[in-house]
Amino acid sequence: MVLSPAVQFIILLIGLGALIFFAMRGLSVIVMAPVAALLIAVLSGMDALPAYLDTFMTGGVGYIKNFFPMFMGGAVLGRIMQDSGAAESIARWIIAKIGARFAMLAVVLACAVLTYGGVSLFVVVFTMFPLGMALFKEANIPKHLLAAAIALGSFSFTMAAFPGSPQIQNIIPTQYFATDASAAPITGIIAGLVMWAIGQWYLEKKVKKYHNEGRGFVAGPNDYIPPEGADLPNAALSILPLLLTIIVLNVFKQNVAVALACGIVLALALFWKRLISKGITLERGATEATIAMFNTASVVGFGAVVAAAPGFTVFKDIVLGIPGNPLVSLAVSANLLAGVAGSASGGLTIALNALAQNYLAMGVNAQLAHRISTIACGALDTLPHNGAIVTLFKVVGTNHAEAYGDIIWVSIWNQLIANAVAIVVGLILLAIGSPIL
To answer: What is the C-alpha to C-alpha distance for residues 66 and 43, in angstroms, rounded to an integer?
Structure first.
């Protein structure tokens, strides 16, 4: 029986809904992504076995091939920075300079510095939680706001907007648009500042509101607040591996795997004696990289089956048919697919695998396509089923009911607005013939 395009599209939505349903209930994406993919394949009339063994596996394995060195490098560098105390040293220095009066700004900036230096987002969460707790206790700020502060500093402007970031979301487009990590720097900086300003304004407004209501910090039974006077490396020395990573990537234009490797070598040289068990540190970093890699690769494999299903043609026609500049439809497609996947990097890969050549054929500027798609994937990816959000809430000791409303402001609304600003700024720069976008 031949199914109509409308029915095929509904089948696609059923499979996508199934994946979100599984993820929201804490089931492993590694297991459930192929289940959801097979559901789409069977209902669409595709051959189930080739859909899994060929389409799904090709998509997932291709993602691993392209990005595993980066996952490994970021996770190992982050683990060395954490176990040596270097990440904590940087964070403490920033917090000490800014102080409890500007506790929100201190946490956001500390997260931003670590993320922009290439430290894994998950490592930043675990590093900043105890330090943020100590600062929030001193400033008497409700601790559930710490989740939003970490999200703003880690999951937004340094991850997706600021040029030169070694985070994977900023690297993926280079594979499709022949760009580098510094693509469209003016557009990225302006969009990043908008993103940061909206998020910071919201958080400061919430702090003031809670203080006026007499609500303050209340520690949970399992919260850990680090003691003062810890033996940590010098902050200026601690930041050198992160600076080296950024310099090798953006000044010497080396592959991100090479840049991260340079950062790792320097970190090991500087902090070798501070690592109590070198083998365990490296093993933990490798394990964290592998888990994160396979989770995302499974989502990308699912996306490959989605893209091969007949219903995806309907989605593609809808997106490409959005009126106005093609950059708008590029932003919409990256946003929607990141939301469905619950992963910025996974959704971005799915979108660009399926649509990048279409946008280039439309004459879209590659630099702007890079920056717009990178910013776009960081908004709806933080829907409630996102793995990083679930982990963040568990670490902070809060929940969706208490803290997700703040995430909507600091990691969704601000990025959607910044994405629109980026499109306008980029098009203006193109129109006036600016040599730098």
So the answer is: 31
Summarize pLDDT for 247-290 with one digit per residue, the tens.
888 888 888 888 889 999 999 999 998 888 888 888 888 887 88
- 277 falls within a domain: yes
- Positive or negative, the Cα torsion across 182, 186, 190, 191? negative
Exposed, middle or buried, 402 (CB in 10 Å: 0-12/13-18/19+)? middle
DSSP helix/strand/coil, 370: helix
Its pTM stands at 0.80
Helix axes 344-361, 278-308, angle to 10 degrees: 50
HSE toward the beta carbon, residue 16, CA cutoff 13 A: 22
Q: Are 411 and 156 contacting, i.e. CB atoms less than 8 angstroms apart?
A: yes
Side-chain-side CA neighbours of residue 344 (13 Å): 27
Q: Is residue 427 within 8 Å of residue 327, measured between CB atoms? A: yes
Does a structural domain hold residue 373? yes
| DSSP assignment letter at 117 | T
Is 2 a member of any domain? Answer: no
Cα distances from 282 to residues 82, 129, 241, 285, 435, in angstroms, run 12, 22, 16, 5, 43
Number of domains within the chain:
1
Model confidence over 150-187: pLDDT tens digits? 999 888 888 888 988 888 888 889 989 989 888 999 99
Range of the domain at 201: 7-216+230-431
Q: How far apart are CA 241 and CA 81, in angstroms?
A: 9
Can you tell me the distance from the alpha carbon of 247 to that of 264, in angstroms, rounded to the nearest whole number?
A: 14
How big, in percent rounded to 5, are the helix, strand and coil portions of the chain? 75, 0, 25
Is 1 inside any structural domain? no
How far apart CA 18 and CA 302 sit, in angstroms, is 12
CA 32 to mean position of chain CA atoms: 21
